[in-house]
Design goal:
Chain lengths: ~220, ~180
């Protein structure tokens, strides 16, 4: 879902950067408050985790596979602000240290994959928790986070033909309008990448619950 | 101080390149970047090409085919968008190769420190991920079933999370014992 440099006009990414900076500052402040004095070591660990989760290839029924971003896992475990900050920091590191993703579009990627995905996943989980089967709730949290993020990316890409054209009227940034980006980007996330994220959220959260139960039982026995 | 100046220049150049609406100035920018990169030209050029190619070529080629089928000129679009994307990626890679990023973001003590810690942890995790994958391959004789793959993925990702959280506590204690308080 990363948007690379060069496809988004300055009239889109500059306002997005202005919007993202205060949000990131609030996220950083809230994260530090939430995790107290161990914050820096803990934050860097979660950032490394969100980087590493993107390296796992997760197969889904149908014969294909993809990678998750881990927004729902972090949001459910540590809250949406912590998740948004860690994913944004991962995207910043990918853009500036590893040259992947692009610094000019960092704000849009951060708003979509960091903030929108984390908050959507967190609130879907909060809304559905204890109302449906736990596996379904976890799957839907991961799926809805990534689908919501893909909608933001689709809009950011789809408005580009309206914002920049050359002398003969051809687009000079991303060429396809909303009529193409919404079904292509959101559709692929509804059917594929959302399923990958949902599966990853379900597998990891269930495993964490399993090892937590084992630890609790062991402590009781001891 | 020098790194911070370079960061400001880099951001300014990135915005200026993103504003270019035709391929002629982008070609001139590319020539300047190639000269500036010196001996690293091939390494940075190859990496930029890999990073740009997948998304850029897919999008611009599909749009160009559409324009071609409508008998409309498409070269200007193909060159402008691909060159802009390539120039911006090349500039970023050149910047990261020549400038100390941690020094460049040192205007914020918190950000600079967090960046150093996170990147070092990411590198450790990348190595651990490689070892983990190799270990699994060397111990797997038969093709695993889908359920076995899901069990492995759940345990591996949760294992990495557990490892990260445990290590963060150790790191914090180590930092505290060395008098580092943030």
């Amino acid at each position: 879902m990363h948007i690379p440099d060069g496809f988004i006009s300055p009239s889109t990414y500059l306002p997005a950067t202005v919007a993202a900076i205060p949000l990131l500052m609030i996220a950083f402040k809230k994260t530090k408050e939430a995790i107290n004095d161990e914050s820096f070591a803990f934050l860097s660990s979660l950032t490394a985790f969100s980087f590493v989760i993107m390296m796992f290839n997760i197969p889904i029924p149908g014969g294909t596979s993809g990678h998750a971003i881990g927004a729902a896992i972090l949001a459910i475990m540590f809250g949406p602000w912590v998740a948004a900050f860690c994913i944004s920091l991962t995207l910043f590191i990918q853009a500036l240290v590893f040259g992947d993703g692009g610094l000019s579009v960092f704000a849009i990627n951060s708003l979509a994959m960091g903030f929108v995905a984390s908050f959507a996943a967190f609130y879907v989980h909060k809304l559905l928790n204890n109302r449906l089967n736990n596996s379904i709730v976890l799957f839907l949290s991961g799926w809805s986070g990534i689908v919501a993020a893909s909608f933001v990316v689709a809009v950011a890409l789809g408005i580009q033909p309206l914002l920049g054209v050359d002398s003969v009227g051809h687009p000079i940034y991303f060429p396809f309008g909303l009529n193409v980006t919404i079904p292509a980007v959101v559709g692929s996330h509804v059917l594929f990448f959302g399923v990958v994220e949902g599966f990853a959220t379900m597998l990891v959260m269930k495993f964490i619950a399993k090892i937590s139960n084992q630890r609790t039982n062991k402590e009781v026995v001891i | 101080m020098k790194a911070k100046t370079y960061l400001i220049l880099y951001i300014g150049a990135l915005i200026a390149i993103s504003m270019c609406k035709s391929y002629e100035p982008l070609l001139a920018v590319l020539a300047v970047l190639l000269v500036m990169s010196g001996k690293s030209v091939l390494v940075i050029g190859r990496r930029s090409l890999i990073l740009v190619a997948l998304f850029s070529l897919f999008i611009t080629l599909s749009y160009s085919v559409m324009l071609y089928l409508q008998n409309q000129p498409f070269w200007n679009y193909v060159l402008t968008v691909n060159l802009r994307s390539f120039d911006m990626v090349f500039l970023t890679l050149l910047f990261t190769a020549r400038v100390n990023i941690y020094e460049a973001v040192a205007f914020s003590k918190d950000l600079s420190f967090l960046l150093v810690l996170s990147v070092s942890k990411i590198m450790t995790m990348q190595r651990a991920f490689g070892d983990y994958t190799d270990a699994l391959k060397s111990r797997t004789l038969k093709k695993p079933t889908r359920n076995q793959i899901y069990d492995y993925l759940g345990s591996a990702i949760a294992g990495f999370l557990d490892k990260n959280i445990r290590e963060s506590k150790e790191n914090f204690e180590a930092m505290k014992s060395r008098g580092f308080h943030v």
